[in-house]
Amino acid sequence: MRNKYLLFLVTVVAGNILFSQSQNATNTASDFKIDYEKFTLDNGLEVILHEDHSDPIVAVATMMHVGSNREKPGKTGFAHFFEHMSFNDSENVPRGANRKMIPEWGGSRNGGTWSDGTVYYEVVPKDAFEKILWIDSDRFGYMINTVTQAALEREKQVVKNEKRERVDNSPYGYTDEVIRKNLYPKDHPYNWTVIGQLPDLQSATLEDVKEFYNQYYGASNASLVIAGDIDVEKTKELVKRWFGEIPGGPEVAPIEAKPVQLQETKSLYFEDNFAKLPELRMVFPTVEDYNKDMYALQILGQLLSGSKKSPLYKSVVEEAKLAPNVGTYQSSNELAGEFIFRVRANANTDLDSVKLAIEKGLSDFEKNGVDHQELKRIKAELETQLYQGVSTILNKAFQLVQDNEFNNDPGYISKTAELTNAVSAADVMNVYQKYIQDKAYVMTSFVPKGNVDLAVSGSEEAEVWIEEVKSDVASEEVSQGEEADYQKTESKYDRSEPDFGELPLFQSPEVWTAELSNGMEIYGIENREVPLVQFDISIPGGQLLDPENKPGVASLLTDLMMQGTASKTPAELEEAIGLLGASIYMYSSNEDLHITGTCLAKNFEPTMELVQEIMLEPRWDEKEFDRLKSALQTNLKGMEANPQAIAQTVFYRLLYGKDNSFGVPGMGTMESAQAITIADLQAYYSQLAPENASFHVVGSITKPEVQQTLQDFSASWKNASPEIANDEIQPEGEGGKLYFIDVPDAKQSVILIGKLVLSGEDSDAAKLNFANEILGGGSSGKLFQTLRIEKGYTYGAYSGISDNLEVSPFYIRTSVRANATLSSLEIIEEMVQNYAADFGAEEVKLTQNKLLKENTRAYESLGAKLGILREISKYGKDPSYIEDMQEELMEMKEEDFKEVINEYLSEYEMIYVVVGDKATQLEEVKKLGKPVVELDIHGNKI
């Protein structure tokens, strides 16, 4: 949550960032500062206000100083579980309003729990500001009387589904549990995972909930931050009114830091049901958050593996060729910290060899010491990350509230910047010797099932509790239940819902355009909030230009083009980019190829010189091609373990056919990856042309500056544009059928339902997006409200429409607990069949209100503004298209919505894809009444 990579002077005043650059990036930086005002209510609640008028939005975050570190063995996962319970009901707010009403006001909301704390946050248009204070304060101080047994049981199912999705049904999902159990003693608060154990969760009682609330949810154990388009003095009065009567609660004694030490190295292995690739982790105990050594450890992580010059990259990836990449990083929490080595190796790789390669890299580091040029590069990159870390109002809010609650200083970001910038080569070597060199650690070998021989020699089998899959859903049926019977807490204020303020309407930013002499069009938005520039070059073609039977060429080409230039080795190019504090990436999508990035405004010209060199002077490095091809095969093998990826791959093949570029993953297949040659990439490269390409740029830069910088690029790049034809759509799926893919012992079933509907150019495209909002547009949609809130079957359920020039699909996606598969399918089937009939005047009003207000916050970031420019260039939209869409939305009548739904969302034409446990679920899904076809994980009929 906290951005710890901060450098250089920044002062934020009413949303404007004033900055001055250090003379030397390696010298001590001047203070970094976010303006704020702090005060404390009589009940002990500490409040931080930050005024920022750059957008008509407000962010509110409440930080509770209670995480899983306050739990006890046998009651694990309770802090996270309570976070879920907090969103259900409160005394003065309608039931379920938190999850439903905030999105309908055009806002976003969520919560998060980690080892040390719990945060609740919202971002809303400014007209809903007081409504958020009403709803947030009621959740904080007035929810405990409303908790019922039914709500408790339903939320247990939701959290269990979250664990199944993120842990049980995910490759390497149990790694955190294994590491914590072996790194921390049984009585240490980090010995268990944040999500906890399902038996502990199942045994939770109403008394447990109330005891936890009364002990930890007092106002004196929290911090509140409000940031955005506010009036400070008026906001103070509103905060006193809405939050001032919340009880302070008992004193919560602070927990002292408890870093650990290991007497000996522990090596453990686990056969992972979902993993297709062996993974090695080595975890060294280090220091807690805010410890001075933490900053040097963070830079150590970058030095060991963060570039092609780094010792571990050289030893593991380049020399031994054991994995596509290697990662090292410091993770600090309130009580202790960890330094982590992580390598997901190539298929069938013996992890003993990975361990030896890591040891070889560390030996090289000990011998050669810190590369001062690398240290300089890292600090240059940190300057850019500094500005990115304060580029949205929510990020500023998080920074202020976390530093206040956990270090009693909302402005600690200044010290963070100073300490990070002051790290020297000697500091880095000191922490390496102090915490890593010759020290004991916990090592895990997670290997595919049946491949124990790949684990590090001498490893012991890890103990992991695994849930039994049950075929009956009836025993776990839950419902909303009756509302609690209670007497409202007395208040001297009227705690009913306040009115909206003045409605802020979205106004399109001013878009400027130009055209270069080579035919490339430029689209720009000038924005001076932070001294950054984001850019993107979109070149038509993408996967559509892949040669026949060789999907993945475009994707592999974009990877290779970032591996050096004709005059720079891969390491030299990476260093050149890093020393500018820039980031440059290339990637391919179905219809376009992109080169995109971020840089400091002052470095736009040298950054674009590198972009030009990358684009026009490729290196065609055979060694790098072989490495990337091997990495591609490793990644494709890894995807075979992911039920979500399996579902998506099969879904698109069924819709488009295996010979259509949309019917094959953009990375290609194992077969195509093997067949691709460097000559294929060179042939594709010869087709890259500026004629129909678009350059998009957003940030602290003017139109003349951009044009001047791109002049040489324009003169040097003059290829003719190729003819691009869409592949014929030859669907393999048939509407009305259900396609089942077996993943043995899956704790959840992944469900993906849909059909091809229309192109993003279609005049009905916007209308269909509007019409979908009530069905599956976020947590207020019917899918989410029914499958999660009412039934507790899933962690989330959504629907949407893909956006391409080609005819694209409407989809419904969710992951439900295995024994709720049939019930979930029946609910979705009925909901879609009746959607048009159930869409009335109330749904029209909700859709219009939600989407109209949502626009006020949807385009705040530079990335979102870049997205506006891409929409304009790709689909030929007017610069004011968002305002035009708002008008189109407001003109739609009930019959217009029904017409669009009936035209495009016929349930009888949809295909159903289910990825789950065949042994328990295949016979169940047959009861839906649709013809069932069994497929393998690639979409081939069995």
Please render the helix and strand layout as text:
Layout: E1 9-13, E2 16-20, E3 32-34, E4 37-40, E5 46-51, E6 57-64, H1 78-86, H2 97-104, E7 108-113, E8 118-125, H3 129-141, H4 149-168, H5 175-183, H6 198-202, H7 206-216, E9 222-228, H8 232-243, E10 266-272, E11 279-286, H9 293-305, H10 311-319, E12 327-332, E13 337-344, H11 351-368, H12 372-388, H13 393-407, H14 413-421, H15 425-435, E14 442-448, E15 460-461, E16 512-515, E17 521-526, E18 532-540, H16 553-561, H17 570-579, E19 583-588, E20 592-600, H18 604-616, H19 622-639, H20 643-656, H21 670-675, H22 678-685, E21 694-699, H23 703-716, E22 738-742, E23 748-758, H24 765-776, H25 782-790, E24 794-801, E25 808-817, H26 821-833, H27 835-838, H28 841-858, H29 862-875, H30 881-891, H31 894-904, E26 911-916, H32 918-926, E27 932-935
Parallel strand pairs: 1-3, 5-9, 10-14, 10-15, 17-21, 22-26, 22-27
Antiparallel strand pairs: 1-2, 4-5, 6-8, 6-9, 7-8, 11-13, 11-14, 12-13, 16-17, 18-20, 18-21, 19-20, 23-25, 23-26, 24-25
Helix pairs in contact: 1-4, 3-8, 9-15, 10-11, 12-17, 16-22, 18-23, 24-28, 24-31, 25-26, 28-30
What do these coordinates show?
With 942 residues, the chain is an alpha+beta fold. The protein has 4 domains: 217 residues, Metalloenzyme, LuxS/M16 peptidase-like (Cytochrome Bc1 Complex, Chain A, domain 1), CATH 3.30.830; 170 residues, Cytochrome Bc1 Complex, Chain A, domain 1 (2-Layer Sandwich), CATH 3.30.830; 205 residues, Metalloenzyme, LuxS/M16 peptidase-like (Cytochrome Bc1 Complex, Chain A, domain 1, 2-Layer Sandwich); 198 residues, Cytochrome Bc1 Complex, Chain A, domain 1 (2-Layer Sandwich), CATH 3.30.830.10. The protein is built from 32 helices and 27 strands. Strands 4-5-9-6-8-7 form a 6-stranded mixed sheet, sandwiched between helices. Strands 12-13-11-14-10-15 form a 6-stranded mixed sheet, sandwiched between helices. Strands 16-17-21-18-20-19 form a 6-stranded mixed sheet, with helices on both faces. Helix 18 packs parallel to helix 23 and helix 24 crosses helix 31. Belongs to the peptidase M16 family.
